[in-house]
Write a structure and sequence with these properties.
By secondary structure, the protein is α/β, with parallel strands linked by helices. It has 21 helices and 15 strands. It has four domains: 68 residues, no CATH class; 128 residues, P-loop containing nucleotide triphosphate hydrolases (Rossmann fold), CATH 3.40.50.300; 116 residues, no CATH class; 144 residues, 3-Layer(aba) Sandwich (Rossmann fold), CATH 3.40.50.
């Protein structure tokens, strides 16, 4: 009798033959796949067994051999997917990685699903498999599709399901996983990760095939994890660092790309909505918010095709999802402080919502806007009133603004012009930040045509004089470089003190 091989029992890729476990969604999926014509949409995190489950059900229904499996990830399959709506009959077609398809193809498929359901087609059935919220993307194209398809959402698997998988593997290899409890805990509901951890526990214990007598693994979980992370680093270290750098490393930046990936590592479902996550991290609403609203994050993905192997970013919904469960395991276990330091950043947490807050009279708005735009391009967080109008709506303006100038900005930049003392809001803002001169938190920008002695509080404070008859851009660029260097040095000093 041929001994079973390790790679066939605890599989690193492909469909499991010996360790398949029915997820709790299995009965609903069975009925949905058996129903003629009605489309099926299966969504959920990567690595929890969606495609394996579909193919297992089709085996039980004795129609697996007649099923065509296409992928939204493969170029050669895209044309076949596009042509489906032109065929009167195409049998059962599974489209894996559905979320990878562009909008026009998704819209065509949503119309096709509707037609197949209305006609109760006997010889055509469409099964779409994708990450979280795949079904909602279809319904966006055809709202009346909701009651014509079955949307089956796969959740992360329970510890009991992971244990069942491991016990099946133990039985087929005639082994005992000494670190089974740790594997269950560290798999975080992913069948894929459980397979990987069990595979390497056997491999590092020199168990390569079915044992003649009951054999126990002999590697500690700490050592096992160290081996695995070393292996994963070969594949993921460089791409992680590149993603975290963004378009380029910027001095004084709040590292928005790093924080997006760091927040993803904290998720339990291998997916986050960045806009929603920002509500939990208000101190990053300007830095991370900038790369969303200005399209920088989308551009980041477009410029590096390799990101699509490990991540999926829906720029319309700001949903960021992991494509490869092994990458998620890597993100969960790396030292983020080391990653930050490696790419030239010094903090993962910030005490204030803004690095700088601008205070100015309306006549100087052109100067304020120039400073804001340039600092924002450098991924420095700046309070600028025009950028906050949506947030200020319906708020008590004084209650909204006062904390920003009192404490929520690391530094205040008052643009001190001859108009400044005559404006009500400038007086209000100055009243709230005047005590911060003593905290060395005010950096004045003096306009050269201001009368001497107009701003007594700012006398003796390090600032910058803007010559109104000089070149505007060159002076402001020089001032902005000083501001970027200032916040950069502050980050280093705060890191050294921590």
């Amino acid at each position: 009798m041929t001994q079973k091989k390790l790679e066939d029992v605890f599989k690193l890729s492909g469909l499991p033959e010996y360790t398949f476990v029915e997820p709790k969604e299995y009965p609903k999926l069975y009925i949905a796949l058996r129903t003629k014509g009605r489309g099926v949409v299966i969504e959920g995190p990567s690595g929890i067994g969606k495609t394996s489950c579909v193919l297992n059900v089709l085996d039980k229904l004795c129609i697996r051999d007649n099923v065509i499996v296409l992928s939204g990830r493969k170029r050669k399959d895209i044309e076949k997917i596009k042509s489906l709506s032109n065929n009167e009959s195409f049998g059962t077609v599974i489209i894996d990685d559905f979320h990878k398809l562009d909008g026009s193809i998704k819209e065509d498929l949503s119309n096709l699903l509707k037609t197949l359901a209305d006609e109760e087609s006997e010889d055509s059935k469409l099964v779409l498999v994708g990450i979280n919220k795949t079904g909602y993307s279809l319904i966006d194209y055809s709202p009346d599709l909701m009651h014509r398809i079955d949307i089956i959402k796969f959740e992360v698997n329970s510890d009991e399901k992971i244990e069942e998988l491991l016990e099946k593997g133990e039985k087929h290899l005639n082994i005992e996983l000494a670190v089974k409890g740790e594997i269950i805990s560290d798999s975080q509901g992913s069948f894929h990760l459980a397979q990987m951890l069990a595979h390497h526990a056997c491999l590092r214990s020199n168990i390569f095939e079915e044992c003649n007598y009951l054999t126990s693994t002999n590697i500690s979980f700490g050592t096992l994890k160290e081996f695995i992370l070393d292996d994963l680093a070969l594949n993921f270290s460089a791409i992680t660092v590149k993603f975290c750098k963004g378009q380029r490393v910027k001095r004084g930046s709040r590292a928005p790309y790093l924080h997006v990936l760091y927040w993803l590592s904290l998720a339990n479902t291998m997916s986050i909505n960045i806009e929603t996550t920002l509500l939990e991290h208000p101190n990053h609403k300007n830095s991370v918010g900038q790369i969303l609203t200005k399209g920088h994050l989308k551009e980041h993905f477009v410029n590096e095709p390799k990101y699509s192997d490990i991540l999926f970013y829906n720029y319309e919904t700001t949903e960021l999802s992991v494509e490869d469960p092994k990458f998620f395991y890597y993100l969960k276990n790396i030292s983020w402080a080391k990653i930050a330091k490696q790419i030239g950043f010094y903090e993962l947490a910030f005490e204030t919502a803004y690095d700088y807050a601008l205070s100015f009279a309306g006549n100087e708005r052109d100067l304020a806007e120039y400073i804001y735009n340039k600092l924002s391009e450098g991924e420095v967080s700046v309070f600028y009133d025009s950028n906050e109008q949506a947030r200020i709506l319906s708020q008590d303006v004084e209650e909204y603004l006062a904390p920003i100038y009192r404490s929520e900005s690391r530094f205040i930049i008052p643009i001190l012009s001859q108009n400044y003392p005559t404006r009500i809001w400038c007086k209000f803002e100055a009243e709230n930040f005047k005590q911060r001169f003593g905290e060395k938190a005010v950096i004045p920008l003096w306009l050269s045509n201001c009368p001497l002695g107009m701003f007594d509080l700012s006398n003796g404070t390090g600032g910058y004089t803007f010559k109104v008859d000089g070149d505007k851009e060159s002076q402001l660029d020089e001032f902005i470089e000083l501001l970027i260097e200032k916040i950069h040095q502050i980050r280093i000093e705060e890191k050294c003190r921590s």
